[in-house]
Design brief:
Elements lengths: L32 E2 L20 H5 L2 H6 L5 E7 L13 E6 L4 E2 L11 H10 L15 E7 L8 H13 L13 E4 L1 E2 L6 H16 L3 E5 L22 E11 L2 E2 L8 E3 L12 E6 L3 E4 L5 E4 L2 H17 L4 H11 L7 H4 L6 H4 L2
Parallel strand pairs: 2-5, 2-6, 3-5, 6-8, 8-9, 9-12
Antiparallel strand pairs: 1-7, 3-4, 9-10, 9-11, 13-14
Length: 357
């Protein structure tokens, strides 16, 4: 069994509590948190006339998987909004909805005021062209931009509402052709003390699953490298959710940004160990380059980045006719066992090239 490797990125989390308690001696309800890491080093930059594939894209064989995919499906990104004017998402974002304002339209109400949602959407769907980077499901997905968070976090009621809206799609009717096949959530929080909120989320997830949607969520970034130090996060712990841990590639005493095939697949300390049966698979989540709000690219780390990689491959499988359950089973069957406990890695690192045949 492998020992967890240390990781030095400092993580930025949204506020964990609402600003005003309802009453004394009552637990304050935590907000939904962004599950992102601060971009290490300077990172980022402007646009590029040369397209570069992120190491994670190469490691999981996304290009091979894309080449074996025939259909196009909708992926709902529930996040801080998406920069729908980013050149590398031209024509990809086909619907926008604000679960905060309860409004439809790609406008200021659904714009990305943080950068997190744009980075997530890019991992899934950035165009395969001559600039910036390329998404793991590029050419086979449309993005539904559903804004549920600000840079300060969000409300659980808005999240539950957003899941239902994503499941129904633009026409507002469950079970029709415009429903989101995949609902991707790089967010979460510990609501162990709030079973009513857990149930509200479960009801929304069950509703989405009843319409055929796959629901994918991040495991969270509170890991400590201490074996058995179990963390809790929802919606990752809700039933029917595909829960994702993060991986990196390691060589010469450091995490790497370029995959050559000689590096070791490892899990950084930040990726949560969770209760048995919660984590399903893991995916690239350290030093991930994707789209930057306002144009160009930037680098982020976290289970937030691993989640859209997994959502993208689930989308490719569903574009080829797999159901949500069949897609998850296929991911697990073809995952690469990295030697960690299943409470950390699930079945292991996703292998898109092996999964999509």
């Amino acid at each position: 069994m492998k020992k967890l490797l240390g990781f030095t990125i400092i993580f930025m989390f949204a506020l964990s509590t609402v600003s005003l308690a309802i009453a004394a001696n009552i637990d304050v309800i935590p907000r939904v948190e962004l599950l992102k890491g601060k971009p290490p080093g300077k990172g980022g930059g402007g646009g590029s006339t040369t397209q570069t594939a992120d190491w994670g894209y190469v490691r999981i064989g996304a290009a091979e998987a894309r080449s074996r995919t025939t259909g196009v499906v909708q992926v709902a990104v529930l996040d801080t909004g998406v920069d729908f004017n980013h050149p590398d998402l031209a024509g990809v974002v086909t619907w926008c909805y604000s679960a905060i304002k309860r409004t439809t339209g790609c406008d200021r109400n659904t714009a990305d005021d943080d950068g997190h949602g744009t980075h997530v959407a890019g991992i899934i769907a950035a165009l395969d062209n001559s600039q910036d980077t390329v998404g793991a499901a590029a050419g086979h997905v449309e993005i539904y931009n559903i804004k549920v968070l600000s840079k300060r976090g969000g409300d659980w009621n808005d999240l539950a509402h957003a899941i239902r809206v994503a499941a129904e799609g633009p026409d507002g009717v469950l079970g029709t052709s415009d429903d989101a096949e995949v609902i991707s959530m790089s967010l979460g929080g510990d609501i162990s003390s709030f079973p009513d909120i857990q149930q509200m989320l479960q009801d929304a997830i069950d509703y989405a699953r009843s319409g055929g949607s796959a629901v994918v969520a991040a495991a969270g970034n509170e890991g400590t490298c201490q074996a058995g130090d179990v963390q809790h996060s929802w919606p990752a712990e809700n039933n029917g959710v595909i829960t994702v841990g993060a991986t990196g590639i390691y060589a010469n005493g450091a995490f790497q940004r370029e995959y050559t095939g000689t590096e070791q697949d490892v899990m950084p300390c930040f990726s949560n160990e969770m209760p048995p049966g919660v984590v399903d698979v893991s995916a690239p989540g350290v030093y991930i380059t994707s789209l930057k709000k306002g144009g160009g690219v930037t680098e982020m780390s976290g289970t937030s980045m691993a989640t859209p990689y997994t959502s993208a491959i689930v989308a490719l499988l569903m574009a080829n006719g797999f159901s949500a359950d069949q897609a998850l089973n296929r991911l697990k069957q073809t995952a690469i066992d990295m030697g960690y406990p299943s409470t950390l890695q699930g079945a292991g690192l996703i292998d898109a090239a092996a999964a999509v045949q």
